[in-house]
Structure formats: C-alpha cells, structure tokens
Amino acid sequence: MDARAILAQSLVIDCHLDLLYDVLQKRRQGRRQVILNDYWEDWRAGNVSCIVSSLYCDEDCDYLPEALLQIAAWEEELAESNGEFFLATCAEDIRRAQAEGKVAVMLSFEGVEPLVGEVSLLRLFHRLGVRFVGLCWSRGNWAADGSRFQDAAYTGYGLTEGGKQLLTLARELHMLADISHINDLGFEEVLHSAQQPVLASHSNTRAISDTPRNLTDEQIAAIAQSGGVIGINGVSPVALMQDPASANLHTLIQHMQHIKTVAGAACLGVGLDQCQRISEALPGGLQEGLFDIIPCYAQLPDLVAGLIEADFTAEEIRGVLGGNLLRVIETVIG
To answer: Which residues are CB-neighbours of 58 under 8 A, at least 6 positions away?
Structure first.
C-alpha cells in the first residue's frame, strides 16, 4: 500500500484545532486573512476536507463576548476569503467540501463557560453554527469538572444539574457531546445521559500515557460501544506524559494500536490539537518542552505510513482519517 495514494483517496477530518482562538488573537494584532495565509496551503497539502474548530476561552477573559468575538472573527475571515473554506453544520457539507476541493469548518465548545450558566443560550450558539459540545476544559465550570493533567488523586465533581440540562438540550438540538478533558465522574454521567454516540475529540490512552487527561481501557470500550470516536492527540505530554521529550510518531501509532485492540479501528479518528502553530497567540507562548508530533498536515503521509506498518488495512486507515467521524456526525448531527 502507498501512503500518499491512501491519503489522496481519503476524507480527512481533524476533529480538534484551536483555529478561531488563533485567528482572533492574530486579528487583534492587525493581521487579516489569517486562515488563507497561515493554514490554507497546509490544509491542501494534507488533503484536509474538514476542521473542527474549538471555541476555547482563557480563564481570565470575559467568556461570552470572547466566544462571540471568535465567531465574528470567523465571519470576517470568510468575507476576506475567496470561498475556499466555509461553515459546515452537517455531514453533507463535509462531503461537498471534499468534492469541491474546499475545507469545511465546524464549530465546537471546548468548555461551555461562554454560556455563563444559561442553558438556553445553547440555542443561540446552535443558530450561529456550533454543533459540538465539550462541557469543560481541564478545569471546573458551572456544567462539569475537568480532568487534571497530572493530579491523579483529584476526584472533583461530575455533571452539575445545569450540565445535565445542557446535555438534554444538546441532544434535542442534535449536537455531539465531546468528553475530552472531562474527569472520570463526568465521563460516566455523560455516557449515561447522552443516549447516542459521543466523541473524545483529542484524547489518548492511559495505558501508554498515564494521565487523567487520557482514557482508560474501560472508557475506550464505552465510547466504542456508544458508536463514538476517539481523536488521537499529537501533543507531546498527552502522548507520553511520563517522558514528553521522547514522544514521537511511533508513540501515536502505539496509542492507535492499543485502541484498535481494545475496541476496534472503527472508533479511531484524528484530533491532533496542534499547539506549535498557535504558540504566538498563547499567553506566555508555548509551554516549555511541549511540541506537536505532527505539527502540520503536510506530514499526514508519515502517519498513514506508520499505520500501514502497524498492519492497519487501507479501509481502516480511511476510517481513521475521517470516515469514522463522518459516520458519527451523520448519525448525531445529520
């Protein structure tokens, strides 16, 4: 099998990128056409057809205006573009992007702080195009408590009553629940409440990288049983918390092999969480020692080659690159 040929034949979806966080910060610096200048060429080099952009807000910001400003920055980028990318709200939009050689961008909460405790505001964000609901980042909020990256002894709380109401409304609106970053208590409650496939957009396995931020074998099996997908995270500490400097492509392949062994390849996806490319927008820059194992989409052939070497079939690889997530999007969102 040829890696580049398989990639060229595949639908490619990255189910987690802090795209609009980066875009807004750079536009605040006076930049314009950020996506066209910083992302477009690399998306095309990796045959990417869909990006799921988080709406992530720093802890010290005014959450609701900040999330709306990210969406406003997206609208401005669209107006300045030549139509090469567009907002997607369903599976058919993703198929159209692939057919036309464009990129569909979907919107996702990475923490529902912007709803400021008002469940009904979810309807407004749905009308603005948001289709994924990650209840929390790795900190607590009004809806749920997050996992901690290194504090294995921390228990915290699960879903609040508001978080449960939010999930109920999300299900009514055909929005996809994302459990990356949630703690173990919250994970169990989301799986119980969702009653549909769930997504772990950018998480790895605790068996290989022992951090509460990652998934136990039981959680991996539960996501697969729900019909959901796990997007493999390419950030070095998430890939190998005990020795981040040693994390490499082989480490990611090991995570993917482990998930395949535990629950099958049909629950695998890609959620690279590329941080190096947005380091200029991060407060204080990039955390020391943190790097992306796959820093750009032009390196996706290397990932495909690694999967071939690990005895993934061409059909399984096409599923990993995007086919599996498209199935979930079509099932839950439409």
So the answer is: 66, 283
